[in-house]
Design brief:
It contains 12 helices and 2 strands. About 0% of the residues have low confidence. By secondary structure, it is mainly alpha-helical. It is about 60% helix and about 5% strand. β1 and β2 form a beta hairpin. The protein has a two-stranded antiparallel ribbon with strand order 1-2.
């Protein structure tokens, strides 16, 4: 059920997020795309990396994804993506990405109405391209530097800018304020489940690329930084599907 009485709270929380991020951006007037490795916390990061490998069960062949029917995984992905679209629209707006804002808004409207609240990806059937972004990318557009590299428990590789983006993204989805419990938690739960399924499906490829190297930590770090920097280097408005 939608609760419009929380609208002032939405505006207040969103304004705080924008102001905090804006202050962070004040020290950087232009987008800077680093090329080297900034990893002053390597010792502690390696410990987290070892833990993440144990949790992931590296090399076990994506058992979870194989155990759960693919049809169910597809539904989880569709619902998670649809629930995230208002957040994608907000970030696209903050980035000045008119095309991305329109795509996110269109996909949410079509999949909510014609896709049974996102269970079916009706927008793709209507040839509406996928689009994904986050507040980490918004900070990049605003000129905030990448900062040191981190490896987070469970989540995996990140940077200081993307860690900040993940925190702010907890508050930038309007559905978190307009939906009542338990509906307001559907996006979070399905989003986490979708990430788990995705990582499980890719476990073999990740194991080959990372564990096959002489230093799996350094390889994972390089893979993440190259991929993230490439994504951010694309012009605003580029149709970048969710490649998580």
């Amino acid at each position: 059920m939608v609760n419009f009485s929380t609208a002032p709270k939405v505006l207040r929380n969103f304004t705080v997020c924008v102001l905090v991020a804006g202050l962070a951006a004040c020290g950087s007037a232009a987008r800077v795309q680093p090329t080297g490795i900034n990893d002053p916390h390597e010792q502690s990061n390696r410990k987290v990396h070892a833990l993440n490998k144990q949790v992931a069960g590296s090399g076990k062949g994506g058992g979870l994804a194989k155990a759960v029917p693919s049809e169910f995984q597809t539904v989880i992905h569709n619902v998670a993506e649809n629930m995230a679209m208002p957040q994608v629209a907000v970030n696209s707006f903050l980035q000045g990405d008119v095309t991305g804002f329109g795509l996110a808004t269109s996909r949410f409207a079509i999949n909510t109405v014609l896709g049974f609240a996102g269970v079916v990806d009706a927008a793709s059937a209507f040839k509406v391209p996928e689009h994904d972004t986050d507040f980490g990318e918004t900070l990049y557009v605003w000129g905030v530097g990448e900062g040191p590299y981190y490896e987070l428990p469970i989540i995996g590789p990140s940077t200081r800018r993307d860690v900040a983006g993940r925190i702010v993204d907890l508050f930038t989805n309007p559905l978190s304020y307009t939906l009542e419990s338990p509906e307001k938690y559907v996006g979070t739960v399905t989003g986490l489940a979708d990430r788990v399924f995705t990582k499980s499906r890719r476990s073999d490829a990740i194991a080959d690329a990372v564990d096959g190297s002489t230093d799996s930590y350094a390889q994972a770090r390089l893979n993440y930084l190259q991929k993230r920097r490439f994504e951010l280097s694309q012009p605003t408005g580029t149709m970048r599907p969710d490649a998580d």
